[in-house]
Design brief:
It comes from Candidatus Iainarchaeum sp. This protein is of the alpha+beta class and 180 residues long. It has seven helices and six strands. The strands form two sheets. The protein has a three-stranded antiparallel sheet with strand order 1-3-2.
Length: 180
């Protein structure tokens, strides 16, 4: 049986999306550079591999540091008095943050499914907002945006879509947990 190489943490779509949301478009490349080294990396070394100014690299590193993903060691050059920083990425921290975020999202979606299952909804048609009965009644069963009548909708498809989304998220979480 062939053994497949283990995926690097930055190769997961979930992780890529998370890193971009936390630290911007170059965060993935930065994490890749730091993870590829066996020892901590200076921001100047990172600068040689990214088309960014050192200040932009430091901004990304600080955003990652704020979330506990990047950590640094500070050393002072006794001759110049300048400090230098060496950085490393804590891949397990990325996974932990994503797992926490996903668990919250799954809980929110499960509550939404519960709400959907116990309420009647109304809408003015495709691409219009939908309202629970109580809100629709307050609007006199007329759409507050368009004035069109609000009609009862079947939300079984929406509940089914939400359940699929939860299943997909749980599957990705399982994969991510195995990766760390």
């Amino acid at each position: 049986m062939a053994k497949f190489p283990k995926k690097k943490i930055y190769e997961y779509l979930l992780v890529k999306d998370f890193l971009i949301s936390v630290a911007g478009d170059y965060a993935i490349e930065l994490v890749k550079i730091c993870s590829g080294k066996r020892k901590p990396v200076t921001d100047e070394e990172i600068g040689k591999k990214l088309p960014l100014k050192i200040t932009e690299i430091r901004t990304i590193l600080n955003r990652l540091h704020y979330r506990g993903i990047a950590c640094y060691q500070k050393t002072k050059n006794v001759k110049t008095g300048w400090y230098s920083y060496t950085w490393e990425i804590k891949a397990p921290r990325i996974a932990t943050l994503i797992l926490e975020q996903q668990v919250e999202e799954i809980t929110k979606l499960e509550k939404e499914i519960e709400f959907e299952g116990t309420h009647a909804f109304f809408s003015a048609g495709k691409d219009s907002a939908f309202y629970p009965f109580e809100i629709a009644a307050e609007y006199g069963f007329k759409c507050p945006d368009t004035g069109r009548p609000l009609k009862a909708i079947n939300n079984k498809k929406r509940v089914k879509d939400l359940k699929k989304k939860i299943d997909l998220m749980k599957s990705e979480l399982t994969d991510l947990e195995k990766a760390i």
